[in-house]
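Slide 14.
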Amino acid sequence: MTSKMWGTTIAVGSYLIALLLSFWLPLFVCLAIPIIGLGGYNVVMAIRHPRPNLTGSVIPVEQAQAVETQKIEKESSAPTEPVIEKPRLSEQVSSEFAQVMEYLEVLEDMVISEGQKDALDNEIVEKALALFARLQRVIPLLHELNNSEVNHTVRRLILKDLNGLINPFLRLSGDAKRTNRRTLLNGLRDVDSKISVIVSTVEHKDLLELQTKAELIHQRYSSSEL
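Slide 15: predicted structure.
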């Protein structure tokens, strides 16, 4: 039976009861019986079937849980963009220089950390990071150069020379750092000068290859007929 039919039944029943009791009860009491009956029914229906109010609709617990479950399933099934990780510098070079590149990254992190703590002045941080960046650009080129002497020099520059400059300096106290900062800067400059020589060697090799290839192309096509 629907709620509307229940309401009609209760209204008619309350009226008949009031009519029967009208022989013994005052009129105003009999008139109140149908009103009380319908009022009680409305209260019961309001509790069992809550209606929307000014703050929003009331959703049964089961329905709310179902909606939340569907939302979670939709989000979990939605395609996500793949995370592309940039390869570390040590993964971009030959195994001979993988350790060297890793150590360069360690030195770089150390200098940045000390600079953030104001344990190194800006000039030292800037020149050290510029040197590290230059080395990171040069090392991948050494594979094409294929010169064992140059490879040995670069490894010594980083693992021994830079290591012997930067680590002892970082262990100094603040006053000692300020007093000996020029010694570190001069050492960084000397390493950079040696890297310039190596870069010139790489460029010279590239220039020779360019000239050789250009001459070959000239000889091959300058006198040929189309």
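Speaker note: Helices lie at 3-21, 27-48, 61-77, 95-116, 122-138, 142-145, 148-170, 174-221.
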